[in-house]
Structure formats: structure tokens, C-alpha cells
Specification:
- With about 290 residues, the protein is α/β, with parallel strands linked by helices.
- About 40% of the residues lie in helices and about 20% in strands.
- The strands form 3 sheets. An 8-stranded mixed beta sheet has the order 5-8-2-1-11-13-14-12, sandwiched between helices. A 4-stranded mixed beta sheet has the order 6-7-10-9.
- A hairpin with a 5-residue loop joins strand 9 and strand 10.
Length: about 290
């Protein structure tokens, strides 16, 4: 290490110190998209960031999707993915693939990565402790099959795990009132869980830099906005961004302190947002 590097490293730690104090024992819900977990190197970086947050005292709940991985598994099984209004049409065969990929593969893999990074992670679905109960979602554009929307959240199990030092890792599969599994949008699950926990912060790791006032203008990235502005532009957002916007608005109305949309392709995006002065992405305030 050169003599000039040590002061720079110390400055980074000193910059992070007040944020560590602020977020210690505060609850943050992080939704990790499938794109961030598709590449092993990227998944390892995400796991390391989550581990650091937890080890400095942040109470983390992680919700994950896995859209790209599910589509790949469907094609490998000879099933062509189909979407209506941005939602995956989910018949019985597709539902089994969703469960196998989200629960049996992605959730288990991320639990193992967090464990190697030093955390006591617990893999869950909505069925565990009846944490998330869903209801079948209907669409005027066509039958979606076994696609659900969040009906209610019981945060009791999550709270108990957090109090005992565990990091819950929740896959976006949830049962309906009869116990049949449904495929639920992970953005919606993350927002509903954050609202139920009265989380201080809700973070979405995505594959875009944030929200733009003009999608075609790279200079129109919004660094901070209020919920009223988000509500006004939500109908014009892409099919992938609309569920995030709707979930953010609902979470803020339930008392979540703030929400962030971050570019998960940026290494250590979570740490840059939470522990530095500048932050990145788009912040949404009540």
C-alpha cells in the first residue's frame, strides 16, 4: 500500500461512519432482481454488500425475483415463455418451474453465498409462517393462470428472525387462501413487506440507472422526487418499472421512510447509496 492510499481509505471509512450510526438497527428491505443474480460474479458482489450491511447492524430483509432464470428454464423444458401486460402467464407446468428456479435454485444459492460471507441467512417463501398470502390476479387482456397479487402480509416471522440476528431471504412465491402456490411479482412482495415492517428504507436493485423524466434522454435521470411526482408519471413508465412505482407508492403510504431505485449493474451500488454522501440512482420521498 502506498503512503497516499492509506489516507484515502481512511477518508472512505470516516465518510461511512455517520451513516453506519444512522442505519444501525434500522430495517431496510432490498429487492434483488434476477439480472443481478444471473452472473455468479455479480451475485457474489451483491451477497458481500448485503453481508456488510448486516454486519454493521442494519436489519435486512431480502426479496428476490428470477425472471431471466425462469425463462431460461422454461425454454430448456420446451415451454415458450408468454407474457400479458408484462406478467408471466403461469400454467401448472410453469408454476412448477417457477418454484424450482426461485426456491430450489436462486434462494438456496443466495443463502449459501450470504452464509459464506458471514451471515445467518434463512431462505423463505410466502408460505413460511403465512408471511405472504396472495390472491389470484385477473387481467382484462387475458388469463394469467397461477399469477397472484399480495393479499396480506404477516411480518411476525420476519420480525422474530430479525430480532434474533437472522437475515430473511424471501422468494416471491406465495400461497392463496387455499394453500395453492401462486407466482407473485417480486417488486410487489418487497413493497408490501416493507410496508408491513414499517421499514426505514425500501431498495430496488434493477438493471437501469434509475427513473428518467424522458426515457430517451440520459441527462433526465431523476436523483430525487416526491411520491406525488412518481404517481403522476407512473402510467407512462415501462411495463417493468410500473410495478416498482406502484409498490413504492403503496409502501410510502404505509409509513416506509423512503425508497430507492438503484442500478444493480454498478458494483457495490447498495453501499454507495447507503454509506456515501452523494448516493446513486433515484430516491423517492413521501
Amino acid at each position: 500500500m502506498t503512503s497516499g492510499a492509506a489516507p484515502d481509505k481512511a477518508a472512505v471509512l470516516l465518510e461511512a461512519l455517520p451513516y453506519i450510526r444512522t442505519w444501525r438497527r434500522r430495517t431496510i428491505v432490498v429487492k434483488v432482481g434476477g439480472q443481478a443474480l444471473d452472473d455468479p460474479a455479480s451475485a457474489s458482489v451483491v451477497a458481500e454488500d448485503l453481508a456488510l450491511l448486516s454486519l454493521v447492524g442494519v436489519q435486512l430483509v431480502v426479496v428476490h425475483g428470477g425472471g431471466p432464470q425462469v425463462s431460461d428454464a422454461m425454454r430448456a423444458a420446451g415451454v415458450q415463455p408468454s407474457f400479458v401486460d408484462g406478467l408471466r402467464v403461469t400454467d401448472d407446468t410453469t408454476m412448477e418451474i417457477v418454484r424450482r428456479v426461485l426456491v430450489g435454485s436462486i434462494n438456496n444459492d443466495l443463502v449459501a453465498r450470504l452464509a459464506r460471507a458471514g451471515l445467518q441467512a434463512v431462505g423463505l417463501t410466502g408460505a413460511d409462517g403465512a408471511t405472504v398470502i396472495a390472491r389470484k390476479l385477473t387481467s382484462e387482456s387475458g388469463d394469467l393462470g397461477r399469477v397472484g397479487e399480495v393479499d396480506r402480509v404477516d411480518a411476525g416471522l420476519l420480525t422474530t428472525l430479525l430480532e434474533r440476528g437472522y437475515t430473511p431471504l424471501l422468494a416471491s412465491v406465495a400461497p392463496d387462501a387455499q394453500g395453492d402456490p401462486l407466482n407473485v411479482n417480486a417488486d410487489a412482495v418487497a413493497g408490501a413487506v416493507a410496508g408491513s415492517l414499517q421499514a426505514e428504507k425500501l431498495v430496488y436493485l434493477t438493471n437501469v440507472e434509475g427513473l428518467y423524466r424522458d426515457l430517451g434522454d440520459a441527462g433526465s435521470l431523476i436523483s430525487e422526487m416526491k411520491s406525488d411526482e412518481l404517481r403522476s408519471i407512473a402510467p407512462s413508465l415501462s411495463s417493468g418499472m410500473q410495478p416498482k412505482a406502484i409498490s413504492i407508492l403503496a409502501a410510502l403510504e404505509q409509513g416506509v421512510g423512503k425508497a430507492h431505485i438503484l442500478d444493480g449493474r454498478v458494483p457495490h451500488a447498495l453501499l454507495l447509496e447507503i454509506f456515501t454522501d452523494e448516493g446513486i440512482g433515484t430516491q423517492v420521498l413521501p
